[in-house]
Amino acid sequence: MTSSSMSPYSVSRHADTVGFGRVPVPPPSLRTAPTAAWDRFVFWLTAPAALDAAPPLSQLPVARQAFVDALLDLQGREVHQLAERIQQARTLRELWHLRAEIYRVVALHHSQSEAEHRLAGLNQYFPKRGRSRLMPL
Questions:
Q1: What is the mean pLDDT of residues 53-69?
Q2: Nearest-angstrom CA–CA distance, 27 and 96
Q3: Which residues of 21-41 are buried (b: 16+ CB within 10 A; e: fewer)?
Q4: pTM score, two decimals?
Q5: Which residues pair with 54 in a beta bridge?
Q6: What is the pLDDT of residues 15-39, one digit of tens each?
Q7: Tag placement on the chain: N or C end, fewer CB within 10 Å?
Q8: 32 φ, ψ to 5°?
Q9: Are 33 and 53 in contact (CB under 8 A)?
Q10: CA dist list (Å): 49 to 27, 46, 68, 72, 133
Q11: How many angstroms separate the Cα of 23 from the Cα of each of 28, 111, 120, 130, 133?
C-alpha cells in the first residue's frame, strides 16, 4: 500500500453522506388529532402546532399489525416477547419506542440492511420532518 492511499484526504466521502437522504422520524405527539370535523377545528384553534399532532388512534390497529408483520419470519423467546409488547401498545407513541427493539432483533436474525428496510416500512405511521422544513424557500 502506498503512502498516498493512506492519506486522510483520499478517504471516500461516502461515509459523510450516508445519512443525508434519511428523514428524521420523531415520535408522535402526546396529543392525538381528532377525527370529527368540529373537533378538528377546535383542535386547530387551540393547538399551536396542530400539524405535529399524533395521527388518530384509528390508525393504531393497522400500525400494530405492521409491526407484528415485521417479525413474522423470526422465531425465539425474544421475538415472542417483543410481539406481545407490540400487541399491548396503547398508542402510536408506544409503538414508536419499539422501533429500536425491532431493528435490533431483525438485524440479529438477518442483517442491518434488512432491519433498515423493515423500519423504513414502519416509519410511514409516524410524522416526518425533512430537510425541506429546515431550508428557506
A1: 83
A2: 6
A3: eeeebebbbeebbbeeeeeee
A4: 0.60
A5: 32
A6: 434 444 455 676 665 556 666 777 7
A7: C
A8: -90, 135
A9: yes
A10: 14, 9, 31, 37, 14
A11: 15, 21, 10, 5, 11
Amino acid at 50: A
- pLDDT score recorded for residue 22: 58
Amino acid in position 103 = Y
Cα separations in angstroms, 107 against 1, 42, 69, 72, 116: 34, 44, 15, 14, 8
C-alpha cell at 24: 428524521
pLDDT of residue 128 exceeding 60, the answer is: yes
Give the CB-side neighbour count of residue 120, counting CA atoms within 13 A. 9
| Rounded average pLDDT over 63-92 | 95
Looking at the predicted structure, is the pLDDT value of residue 110 above 80? yes
